[in-house]
Amino acid sequence: MKSLRNTILLAALVSLSLSFLQAQSTRTAQQWMDLADQETDPQKALAYYKEVLKIQPDGPTAAEAYNGCAVMRSGPTVKAYREALEDIEQAIRRNEGPAKYYAQRAYIYVQLSEYDRAARDYEQAIRRAPAKADYYSGLSYCQTKHGRFDEAETTAQKGIDLDAKSPYAYRNRGRARLRKGQIDVAIADFQTSLQLKHGQLFRVYCDLGEAYEQKGDSQQALKYYQQALDRDPDFADALVGKRQLEQKLKTGGGASILPASNFTGRRVALVLGNSGYQYINSLDGQPANDARSMEKRLTELGFETVLAVDLARDATEKMLREFYAKASKADVVLVFYAGHGVQHHGENYLLPIDIQLKKAEDIELQAFSVTNLIDALQKQEPRYCIFIIDACRDDPFSKPAGTVAPVGANNPDKEKHRSVALPKGIEQPKPGQGMARGFRPIHVESRIRNCYVALATAPGATARNGPNQNGYYTSALLTHLKKGRRIDDVFRDVRSEVVKQTQKSGFSQQPEYIDRTVEYLIL
């Protein structure tokens, strides 16, 4: 009797299983889509979207499924941004119409610190849905990241005009105004963003801390930095801002007293040197020499080094992605670049050897944004990151081609500018719409506790090749970059050395550094 009951129970279970499988197999693409859209577990939702694509691999339904996959993969619990990018590009290939696809891709590019590409996608989304206020807010954020503060303020205002109750547009307008030095109106925007209940209040409190610090009200600044940390104790921008301001107040603006560490864990370095430019002024091998010399020194200091000389754009992009994976969670990450660099439309760019300047906008499409690189490096979450740029930062559009003669018998001035000449037949850009001499000041938004950016010369100025094997700046680095030294002392001594050596040659090059750290690094 017991055996009979077990047999009946087993048969019932088999029948139920078959019925379930049959129901699964007979679901339509739309039914799978509805299941996926309602599912809160990203992995289950992705599985349902895959079922949609098995039934409907092309057309608008497939596009929606790929968009759903992109949303899930770019969410806060998955953060698989490269896979999400592939998904949303599949969606756009199947249906180029929806504005939300371009906005989704823009969001993914922001997470990848590719703000120029994100801005172009937000512009595409706005063209398709000009009444969507959030798209203007996203575009404004990208414009501020790339130093286009007037554009960012105007764009944010359009978002406010469309939705006066959006806290995000007010915050982004405030960020643009703060970078322009309009402190009081920026503070008013941040306060409005708070009142409208911005979704990440810790960011707005940090903005207020920075604004009051710029205003000279240290106590208010410390209060707001602390309010940011009360809401997110790990928010690096507030942590660094508060610690550095506290140290400044303790020391009266002198040398700060911070904990020191050897950071004895894994150290990795990417060393790039571009000399042999194909379509703009060559730099006669000196940046390549600089890179090789730095690679040797960093290896001596215990870094796992990756050396790359004279890379084209695609090879550089591939190298960077591979290095970011290598740099993930390392103790110390260092990137060194020697070669051409320029400022364009408010942002600073490093140039690959195959860049072709047929028009000013080619910089955005072919070169590498310094802001993007610094943010992407920080997103790998090392304990300490260092970015060293030995670039000329002269304006490729400022003079006719051929004004810088090759070093040789007809050019005794071996201290050649690391500059770029305008190719023949290209129209000069209009004032304020092209490039400018030297880098603009770099603003580092802290994503980790320790980030240091060192530049061969001051904003608005240019660097030169040196008279010997290495440039002035790299020569000084090789002199002072030694085991047991504190990194901040190294860069101070490098600055003094470069000023001294260049003044002997009849000009003055003054290196710059941006210290966003809460600990000293001992090499």
UniProtKB/TrEMBL annotation:
Keywords (A to Z) from UniProt: Signal, TPR repeat
PROSITE patterns reported for this sequence: CASPASE_P20, TPR, TPR_REGION
Repeat positions for TPR: 99-132, 167-200, 202-235
GO biological process assignments: proteolysis
SUPFAM superfamilies referenced in this protein's UniProt entry, alphabetically: Caspase-like, TPR-like
Molecular function via GO: cysteine-type endopeptidase activity
Caspase family p20 domain: residues covered: 265-396
One Pfam family cited in the UniProt record for this chain: TPR_16
Signal peptide bounds: 1-23
PANTHER family assigned: MUCOSA ASSOCIATED LYMPHOID TISSUE LYMPHOMA TRANSLOCATION PROTEIN 1/PARACASPASE, MUCOSA-ASSOCIATED LYMPHOID TISSUE LYMPHOMA TRANSLOCATION PROTEIN 1
Protein name: Tetratricopeptide repeat protein
UniProt source species: Larkinella rosea
